């Protein structure tokens, strides 16, 4: 073992042991992300690594040292201790560390080592110059590591280190490892891009690294547990080690050899595992008043200097508080700055240190704790920081004040589109406090509707309807609008119509949110009933609404949503040009309104895409939708969801992407089943009948039709518009089935009936579509004059309404009929020009086998044999995705292999994970193996048992 050089004139042999670099502990994961940065910086003058104890600084630098060995570089390691904070001892240790590389490097410097620093102020500089000269003569690069630099505070030592930095030759690279800020001047090196600085933010484990570490320590750990521990530890390596040691100990005590209790259920059950660590590494370094400050801010999720002095009731001490927080941050004592738009610097405590301090806070007497929370409540309320204010009001025993505060700010939050903020505020209240307040129950029902927790919303509204005072007309009206809004979200037209008498006349003192919501509900209802002019007049005749001084534009009750519903009334009527103009104007304003207008924006996106597809702008329609589907599903009314998925199915079918088309219909079906919306389910099944028949899959089409007819029968007793629409869809599907079976006369008779029904309801777009279908059937029956008349009528209507896809999608041979008519009929210049537009919609010939897309046609029986019982829950397409998943294919490759979009693959994976009850890819593959399934080959899934 090398020893320190003596202070004699000949430094032949060092005289005291020199600590070496730490060895890498077993189970430590590779920090490739950080090692890559350090390797790229190995030619820089300086590398600085700072972070609190246990953050992996020394382990990282040790791994870097090992990576340098093959690169013909030398490393001298000086592991410092508190005793080295004495100039002579430090200089001896420095020379001994460098001598381990080559004693010749320190020969000249050792001659100067015996000089007293106090007697000769220039001695340190002369020694540094001698040392760098020796290093400059070395043929290889030398990295000089100072580990635990925070132990050094003597000015002469800092001066020696500064000379080394300033005079370092090109082959000398200093690595400074410290728990706190390095007290050296690095500005010049920074300006020259000659320094790499890594701190706690860099040293924290990423989520993936946390998973690797836990797997190395404990074996397989589920994804939710990994995320929970990552958030609790904040990526702090020592914290994770304490967790794993504690868990292993508890497992051993319980007589279990493998993890049994998920971490997610036992995090920080007590702070004892961390108390000793923080006592030694953090709290022992604080003065009593500094520790008292941290204990009092521990209940706060974030804090700043002015909050600290408010909690202490010491307004004159703000300067001292700001200085203290900055020092704690600089010294990496687990006080972390957070982003804020405030001019003050905001901080948070590391989660585990906060738990430790909260334990101390809990030992304070109840009166003191209540005072601290009351001061925090007043401070946060005065600055409009509502969530913090409400939380501390509750903790201070002032729940009633919290209720008043929420009720005051809730309307503005809704109008600004900050509904998540409102939900967070309501969650701060004790449940009994919510139940005691009628107003809080109102806001709760709105929040439940925002989150699409519709059953809970129904329960809340039922209670409000029972408890609303008979004499309070405004509140009764408010509750009625919420009940009607819930009916719209559930697509329950009958329930919405039942509310119509209560909605038609608003009390003079009605809440503007209730009035705006009522207006939009009426527009939707009248449109569903075919009363399009009434739907539009509700919006045009209503006065502008204002909430807390802000115009009510966004939210489901805003005027933008109302205008979008006006556009929908035109689209339902078939007047596409007017609908498009309205939608585009609404989108422009909604984009400018930002978060406040997110509801109107996504509703309008879904409705505009439907119009664009109708006008044959398929590419733009798909571009509008494909990245917004999840949001539309989550927040838009069912009408927008219906149009989005139906449009994407049609567009993909038109492009020859058969499987993608069916995937969108399956997603629509899933949505309809989940939210119990039979009208949307009927649309999905009707489209499935249509496409299955086009593929010649008669048995599959009949199965879909049978389900559709069952839904029709379930609603036979109702006379509202939704059951009529379901009946219409079932009737159109039966017509398609009759045509497929060659029963053209029955199909023609049924078509005549349904055309008359749609005429009565003002559904002119559907009428034009059905007239083309009827013309095709008439032509196939040889009744050519009737076919000509029907097709001409369809063209006249289509031209007047601005329709394209409705006509050409009516039947596969619609284009042929239109071409023939154009050749034989004198159409006139206007109608002839319209026919040219229809002819331009013809899709390019499909070059895929059998005109069915890249995956080929699917027969009713399928291409696979009978599935084993354990796989019956999975569709054929899910099995395909699972097979490729087992081959470790990423989503994009799975999408290419199956002819799907990556977004659709994500949807299939979510279904697979749900059926397997897992949270990710690795767990899914492991579960499949546990079941003994073989999905890795190319021949489909089989059962190995």
Q: Measured on Cα atoms, how large is the radius of gyration? A: 37 Å
CATH fold-level name of the domain at 3-203: Rossmann fold
Uncertain segments of ≥5 residues (pLDDT<50)?
1-19, 257-270, 844-869, 936-945
Order of strands across the main sheet:
4-5-6-3-7
CATH level 4 superfamily of the domain at 3-203: P-loop containing nucleotide triphosphate hydrolases
Spatial separation of the terminal alpha carbons: 62 Å
Q: What would you say the CATH architecture of the domain at 3-203 is?
A: 3-Layer(aba) Sandwich
Total beta-strand segments? 13
Fraction of helical residues: 55-70%
* Text of the CATH class of the domain at 3-203: Alpha Beta
Domain HTH luxR-type: 867-932
Region (Disordered): 1-21, 842-865
Biased composition (Polar residues): 842-857
Pfam families: AAA_16 (PF13191), GerE (PF00196), TPR_MalT (PF17874), WHD_MalT (PF25873)
How would you describe this structure to a colleague?
- This protein has 945 residues and is mainly α.
- Among the domains are: 3-203, Rossmann fold (3-Layer(aba) Sandwich), CATH 3.40.50.300; 207-267, no CATH class; 269-364, Arc Repressor Mutant, subunit A; 867-943, Orthogonal Bundle (Arc Repressor Mutant, subunit A).
- The chain has a 5-stranded parallel beta sheet with strand order 4-5-6-3-7, with helices on both faces. A two-stranded antiparallel sheet has the order 1-2.
- Strand 8 (335-338) and strand 9 (346-349) form a beta hairpin.
- The radius of gyration is 37 Å and the shape is elongated.
- The protein starts with a strand and ends with a strand.
- Mean pLDDT is 84; it is low at 1-19, 257-270, 844-869 and 936-945.
């Amino acid at each position: 073992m090398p020893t320190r050089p003596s202070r004699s004139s000949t430094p032949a042999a060092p005289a005291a042991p020199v600590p070496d670099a730490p060895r890498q502990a077993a189970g430590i994961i590779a920090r490739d992300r950080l090692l890559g940065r350090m390797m790229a910086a190995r030619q820089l003058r300086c590398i600085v690594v700072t972070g609190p104890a246990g953050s992996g600084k020394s382990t990282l630098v040790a791994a870097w040292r090992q990576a340098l060995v093959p690169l013909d570089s030398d490393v001298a390691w000086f592991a410092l201790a508190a005793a080295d904070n004495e100039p002579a001892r430090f200089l001896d240790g420095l020379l001994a560390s460098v001598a381990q590389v080559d004693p010749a490097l320190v020969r000249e410097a050792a001659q100067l080592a015996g000089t007293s620093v106090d007697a000769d102020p220039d001695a340190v500089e002369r020694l540094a110059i001698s040392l760098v000269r020796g290093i400059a003569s070395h043929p290889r690069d030398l990295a000089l590591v100072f580990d635990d630099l925070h132990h050094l505070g003597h000015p002469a030592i800092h001066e020696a280190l500064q000379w080394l930095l300033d005079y370092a030759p090109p082959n000398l690279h200093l690595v400074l490892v410290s728990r706190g800020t390095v007290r050296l001047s690095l500005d010049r090196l920074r300006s020259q891009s000659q320094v790499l600085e890594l701190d706690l933010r860099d040293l924290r484990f990423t989520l993936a690294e946390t998973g690797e570490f836990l797997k190395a320590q404990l074996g397989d750990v589920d994804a939710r547990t990994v995320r929970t521990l990552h958030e609790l530890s904040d990526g702090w390596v020592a914290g994770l080690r304490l967790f794993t040691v504690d868990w292993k100990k508890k497992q051993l005590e319980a007589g279990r050899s493998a993890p049994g209790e998920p971490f997610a259920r036992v995090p920080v059950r007590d702070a004892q595992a961390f108390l000793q660590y923080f006592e030694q590494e953090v709290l022992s370094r604080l003065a009593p008043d500094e520790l008292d400050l941290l204990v009092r801010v521990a209940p706060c999720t974030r804090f700043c200097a002015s909050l600290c002095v408010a909690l202490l009731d010491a307004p004159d001490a703000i300067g001292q508080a700001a200085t203290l927080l900055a020092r704690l941050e600089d010294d990496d004592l687990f006080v972390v700055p957070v982003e804020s738009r405030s001019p003050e610097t905001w901080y948070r405590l590391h989660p585990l240190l906060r738990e430790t301090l909260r334990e101390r806070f809990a030992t304070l007497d109840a009166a003191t704790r209540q005072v601290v929370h009351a001061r925090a409540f007043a401070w946060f309320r005065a600055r409009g920081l509502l969530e913090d204010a409400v939380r501390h009001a509750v903790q201070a025993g002032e729940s009633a004040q919290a209720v008043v505060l929420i009720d005051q700010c809730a309307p503005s939050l809704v109008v600004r589109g900050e509904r998540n903020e409102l939900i967070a505020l309501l969650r701060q209240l004790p449940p009994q406090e919510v139940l005691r307040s009628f107003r809080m129950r109102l806001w709760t029902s709105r929040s439940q509707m925002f989150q699409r927790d519709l059953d809970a919303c129904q329960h809340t509204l039922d209670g409000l309807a029972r408890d609303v005072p008979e004499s309070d007309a405004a509140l009764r009206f408010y509750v009625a609008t919420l009940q009607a809004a819930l009916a719209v979200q559930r697509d329950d037209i009958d329930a919405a119509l039942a509310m119509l008498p209560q909605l038609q006349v608003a009390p003079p003192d009605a809440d503007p949110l209730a009035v705006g919501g009522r207006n939009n509900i009426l527009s939707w209802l009248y449109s569903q009933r075919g009363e399009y002019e009434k739907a539009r007049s509700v919006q045009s005749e209503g006065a502008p609404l204002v909430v807390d001084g802000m115009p009510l534009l966004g939210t489901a009750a805003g005027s933008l949503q109302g205008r979008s519903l006006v556009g929908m009334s035109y689209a339902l009527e078939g007047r596409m040009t007017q609908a498009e103009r309205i939608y585009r104007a609404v989108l422009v304003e909604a984009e400018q309104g930002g978060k406040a207008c997110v509801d109107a924006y996504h509703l309008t996106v879904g409705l505009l895409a439907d119009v664009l597809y109708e006008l044959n702008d398929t590419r733009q329609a798909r571009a509008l939708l494909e990245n917004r589907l999840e949001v539309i599903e989550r927040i838009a009314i069912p009408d927008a969801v219906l149009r989005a998925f139906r449009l994407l199915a049609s567009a993909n079918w038109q492009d020859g992407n058969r499987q993608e088309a069916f995937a969108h219909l399956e997603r629509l079906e899933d949505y309809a089943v989940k939210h119990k919306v039979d009208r949307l389910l009927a649309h999905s099944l009707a489209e499935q009948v249509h496409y299955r028949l086009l593929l010649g899959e008669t048995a599959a089409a009949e199965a879909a039709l049978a389900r559709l007819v069952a839904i029709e029968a379930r609603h036979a007793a109702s006379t509202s518009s939704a059951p009529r629409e379901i009946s219409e869809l079932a009737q159109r599907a039966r017509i398609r089935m009759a045509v497929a079976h060659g029963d053209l006369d029955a199909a023609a008779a049924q078509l005549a009936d349904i055309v008359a029904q749609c005429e009565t309801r003002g559904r002119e777009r559907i009428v034009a579509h059905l007239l083309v279908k009827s013309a095709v059937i008439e032509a196939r029956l040889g009744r050519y004059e009737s076919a000509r008349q029907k097709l001409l009528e369809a063209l006249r209507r289509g031209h007047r309404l601005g329709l394209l896809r409705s006509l050409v999608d009516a039947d596969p041979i619609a284009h042929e009929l239109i071409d023939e008519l154009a050749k034989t009929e004198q159409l006139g210049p206007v109608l002839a020009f319209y026919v040219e537009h229809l002819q331009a919609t013809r899709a390019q010939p499909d070059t895929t086998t059998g005109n069915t897309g890249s995956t080929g046609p699917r027969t009713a029986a399928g291409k696979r044999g009978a599935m084993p019982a354990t796989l019956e829950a999975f569709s054929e397409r899910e099995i395909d995705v699972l097979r490729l998943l087992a081959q470790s294919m990423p989503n994009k490759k799975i999408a290419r292999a199956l002819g799907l979009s990556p977004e659709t693959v994500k949807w299939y994976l979510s279904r697979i994970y749900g059926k397997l009850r897992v949270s990710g890819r690795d767990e899914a593959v492991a579960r499949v193996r546990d079941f003994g399934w073989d999905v890795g080959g190319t021949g489909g899934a089989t059962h190995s048992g």
